[in-house]
Amino acid sequence: MKQSWPSGTKVNPEVEAELERLTTTPVVGLRRRYRELFKAEPPKAFGPDLLRRSIAHRIQEKAYGGLSSKARRVLDQLVKAFAAKPNARLEVQRRIKPGSELVRSWNRRTYRVTVLDKGFAYDGKTFTSLSEIATLITGTKWNGPRFFGLRSTSADGTDHRAG
What we know:
Blueprint: H1 13-22, H2 27-38, H3 48-64, H4 69-84, E1 101-106, E2 109-116, E3 119-122, E4 125-127, H5 130-138, H6 144-147
Antiparallel strand pairs: 1-2, 2-3, 3-4
Helix pairs in contact: 2-3
């Protein structure tokens, strides 16, 4: 179970040796190690491969650190969204860096919007949302992130305009 780490990460030889031993540990030993690490019974559906992967992940997480609080927050939001609408399309909110320029062609004209720390600059004015700008450009109410291509269209071809 070799793992490559980002440069600068100090590899713990004891951890690496334990990961290597997992490849030959019998199922009984894997179940015991799972109970030690997770303080719970391993799921009955977990065969040797999933036990090894779960154990290896937990060992590495303890030794080298787990997910950042930001990543955990995003995952929690996705789980909640899935629980609310299991068949819906899940999308991760993207953060656009200040200074980025969004470009959209509409009715044979190109529009450019600059992302600011707080808001967006367009046509010499500052706006708090992309939807304001999209509505100004089109003359109808639009979902700004969709208008500027920051969100995908729905699978059923639903209209992009806010409704």
